[in-house]
Amino acid sequence: MHNPAAGTIAASANTSSANSFVELPATASHGPLRIEYRWLNEAAANAPLAVFLHEGLGSIEMWRDWPQALCERLGMRGLVYSRPGYGRSTPRPHEVKWPIDFMTAQARDILPALLDALDISVSGRQQMWVIGHSDGGSIALLYSALYPDALAGVVVIAPHVFVEDISVESIAQTKHLYETTDLRSRLARYHADVDSAFYGWNDIWLNPAFRQWTMTAELSSIRQPLLAIQGHDDNYGTMAQIDTIAAHVPHARLVRLDACGHSPHRDAPEKLNEAIAAFVLR
């Protein structure tokens, strides 16, 4: 089920951080890739593993210290990485547009290849929790549907399972801000090629063909414990997202956070950590 190519691991030259890089070989779906990653609590080799999947404009650094704090709370080790096109991972060539099924490709091809390259065993994956935010939440859902025996459970925060008007409107507004304010320079601190990161995400979400994208059919394949979290003040999605998850995954647990927008790990970290800990540790 997983890509058998193991890749080659190399330490980052940046000694001021714990980030490293792994080389993934080319496959039918992508060329050779260099993926930026970081271990959390790496010495706790026998602890369950939490794999963090960032949002559409995210990266390792944009998580800040939240993954570490959550791993400490859960008694887990963690893995954070920047998907291709983000952070210091291989940038998206500017002439390449993400396909409509770009999130499926991340769940089906990139994440399994990364786990293989990092020698995360089958038994290790059975103790693994995938925690995703926004686009990363959608990828986490798709991964759990594709590989139902490969992990212990799933936590998704502000995920997308279909395209809403509010999402498209907010993403169009973000494009305006990127092109007219200092947003580009602020994001440039987190991405080696900020235009690659921004327009890869922005172009696909504003592509009229993407309005028909949905992953609701895949949801019924999810068998693992699943927690879905949404803020009431999210300007990128409504409660219809997690309600749709519950309609297709009857065992899913939903948490709705008051006074919280699209990024609960920044807007309401204590409430978020409490909800995740109560779910995972029970």
TrEMBL record:
Keywords associated with the record: Lyase
Domain of life per record: Bacteria
Keyword Lipid biosynthesis assigned: no
Enzyme Commission code(s) on record: 4.2.99.20
GO molecular function: 2-succinyl-6-hydroxy-2,4-cyclohexadiene-1-carboxylate synthase activity
Domain AB hydrolase-1, residue spans: 51-275
Enzyme class: lyase
InterPro entries: AB_hydrolase_1 (IPR000073), AB_hydrolase_fold (IPR029058), AB_hydrolase_sf (IPR050266)
Protein name according to UniProt: 2-succinyl-6-hydroxy-2, 4-cyclohexadiene-1-carboxylate synthase
Protein species of origin: Paraburkholderia metrosideri
Primary gene name: menH_2
